[in-house]
Amino acid sequence: MNTLRRALIALSIPTLASLAATQSPCFPATSPIQNAGFEALDSLLYPWTLTGTAIYEDGQTVDGRNTSRCLRAETAITATQPVPFALTGGVAYEFGFDVESLYSGSVAYSLQIFDDAGAFVHGSGKQYTGGVGRRRRVMTRFTPTVDGEFTVRINASWRSRIDNLYVREQPVMLTFTNQRRAAVENDLVVTGPNNANFAVFLSLGGKLPQGFALPSLCDGAWWLAGPVFTLTNGALSNAGSYTLPLTIPVELEAAALEWQAALLPPTCSFGCPSTFDFF
Known about the structure:
Blueprint: H1 2-10, H2 13-18, E1 21-22, E2 49-51, E3 54-60, E4 68-73, E5 77-87, E6 93-101, E7 107-115, E8 120-128, E9 135-142, E10 148-156, E11 160-169, E12 173-176, E13 186-191, E14 197-203, E15 207-212, E16 222-224, E17 228-235, E18 241-246, E19 258-263, E20 269-270, E21 274-275
Antiparallel strand pairs: 1-15, 2-5, 3-4, 4-11, 5-10, 6-9, 6-11, 7-8, 7-10, 12-13, 13-18, 14-17, 14-19, 15-16, 19-20, 19-21
């Protein structure tokens, strides 16, 4: 841990120019899931198939930062993406999508993954206390046992906006268990290989245009621009998780917060960064 921290602290803007930029699977040029961002939706919502009532809606900031077209659930819906995409066996992937509640009561969301035979293979869901304008990201980590093709399904409560469905390689995942509200305690959950050593970093300076490699230290790429803080480090549990209660001060409300975790030696790998703003 000390070696990695010293290397990161020593980095400066002049140093970045001499480091090898990398094209990372964190940000593929195109999503393997067709129309995952709903930007190409028409009145038929193609190629998604729906149970329930939903429309597309322009000019929304479901993630709190970027304006785009989204899917708006008028009733409880099940949205299925029937066009298969390929995943590699033995590789850990992170799936997620952003949601914004338009309802003051309790809301629930889930994401399900199916193999090419239509059999359910993995899923994750969460019920939340409601609140108009509350934003969350529903996430899960899935490692297929063999190469194959898969499809996804989203289940959502009524009066919800849904956007930015994605899948990417992710050796260690970060997620928050509840709505991202400043000045309210929330649990940051780290998920990765059982008993692995890890660290979590937070940047107040945004994300670099390209990640850069530190091949003598870690696989993957470093993405955070300074200033960067080490939030926590330790070992994941026997079940591959760690929970950190965390309260973001109101002074950082709506700030551009970028988060990244790393697996530390004996197996060292940078995870893909995540944007989690608080409101």
